[in-house]
Design goal:
With 375 residues, this protein is an alpha/beta fold. It has 2 domains: 229 residues, inorganic pyrophosphatase (n-terminal core) (Alpha-Beta Complex); 106 residues, Diaminopimelate Epimerase, Chain A, domain 1 (Roll), CATH 3.10.310. Helix content is 44%, strand content 17%. It contains 13 helices and 11 strands. A 6-stranded mixed sheet has the order 6-7-8-9-11-10, sandwiched between helices. Strands 2-1-3-4-5 form a 5-stranded parallel sheet, covered by helices on one side. Helix 11 links the parallel strand 7 and strand 8. Helix 2 runs parallel beside helix 4 and helix 6 packs across helix 7. It is globular and about 65 Å long. The N and C termini lie far apart (55 Å).
Length: 375
């Protein structure tokens, strides 16, 4: 057993231990125990991640840690328009032959995710009563909005990995996730402040943009971002490195930047407190466009819908500078739209729904505006 690993005893049968209901410290101990056991056995670990800067930098940290502990990694991220809860994706994870799944930054739902032992690390807000049934669940449970999955991941891994391989030089990966999710507000976080002193804030910001471009591309070429992070020694390697993955990232960023510039020119339609922009783009640019328009319309809730990302479905993002719980605002309009509706954070939410469901949402937004209602 590698130095620093915590041994809790042999897992029980069935769901083994329902660690998500334990204290934060016990949850971290359970998570470290799972990783150490996998490493000691040379087992394969499925590293499942959300394809943005936070999820991908978290995945890079876990890949480094699993290899340092003696295990193998099988990185997996859902395809374009899919999520980790789909049966097809679950079959993909099982097909890797992994003995453990580590799931990063994908949100969480009640119930069992995979049939193999599973560790979830996630910073999204969740009702503790709705925690997933997994062997270890490392989360703030919404108590600390000023963190990221990458920061939680780094704090989880450092005690067990550092005795085997220096992980501190890779702390900049945690900083990427913080900047990607929290923007410049993350500059106050100690991990970001330290990385900015060592590597420069502009290099970190550029790395965030490059990693995000992979998941936002029309091809959803998410794996190339993880490959580039695993090859990089420092954030500047993504912007200036000669590796094939870094070169591919730079090309994807140019494509996504062009699509974003095109989409930002689409004018919104204002309905009361809502400003609605409808796109027809194969690129996942609705989030950045929504953020850009909130700066122009600080007194509105900006909803950017993309009908062109996946046929038959509408992907949309909601942002605002108003002091509102945006998830609650959406849910009040359409209470029963499913688990992919009003997902994410209170101040940065959205959803994936069938086109007819989104059309009903638009109708209710217009009705609210006609009534002059304010939630």
């Amino acid at each position: 057993m590698p130095t620093g690993c915590v041994v809790l005893g042999s897992p029980a049968s069935g769901l083994q231990q329902f660690y998500s209901m334990l204290s934060a410290d016990k949850a971290r101990e359970a998570a470290r125990d799972l990783l150490c056991r996998a490493g000691a056995q040379g087992a394969r670990v499925a590293v499942v991640y959300h394809a943005d800067a936070d999820g991908t930098s978290s995945a890079a940290l876990v890949c480094f840690a699993v290899r340092a502990l003696g295990g193998e990694v099988a990185p997996e991220t859902p395809g374009k328009g899919d999520n980790v809860h789909g049966a097809a994706f679950g079959a993909r994870v099982l097909a890797t032959g992994a003995a453990l799944a580590v799931v990063l930054d994908t949100g969480s739902r009640p119930g069992r995710l995979f049939t193999i032992p599973t560790l979830i690390v996630d910073h999204h807000r969740i009702d503790p009563a709705q925690a997933p049934e997994v062997e270890a669940f490392v989360s703030t449970l919404g108590d600390d909005p000023e963190t990221s999955t990458s920061a939680l991941t780094y704090e989880l891994l450092a005690p067990v990995v550092e005795p085997l391989a220096p992980i501190a030089p890779r702390a900049w990966l945690a900083a990427l996730g913080l900047l990607g999710d929290l923007g410049d507000g993350a500059r106050r976080h100690p991990l970001v402040a330290a990385a900015a002193r060592q590597h420069g804030l502009s290099a970190l910001r550029e790395a965030v943009a490059l990693v995000n471009a992979a998941g936002r591309s029309a091809a959803h070429d998410a794996g190339v971002a993880l490959e580039a992070l695993l090859e990089a020694e420092r954030p500047a390697d993504l912007a200036r490195g000669g590796g094939e993955a870094a070169r591919r990232l730079r090309a994807l960023k140019e494509e996504v930047s062009a699509a974003t510039r095109r989409a930002i020119r689409v004018a919104p339609r204002v309905h009361g407190r809502w400003a609605v922009i409808q796109l027809d783009e194969p690129y996942r640019v609705h989030g950045p466009v929504a953020s850009a328009w909130t700066r122009r319309l600080p007194d509105r809730i900006v909803l950017v819908a993309n009908r062109g990302y996946m046929p038959g479905r509408v992907h949309f993002s909601v942002r605002s500078h108003l002091p509102l719980d945006l998830r609650a605002a959406l849910t009040a309009l359409l209470p029963d739209a499913g688990p992919d509706f009003a997902a994410g954070h209170d101040r940065a939410t959205g959803g994936i729904v069938r086109a007819e469901v989104f059309d009903e949402l638009l109708r209710r937004i217009r009705d609210e505006a006609a009534r002059g209602a304010v939630a």
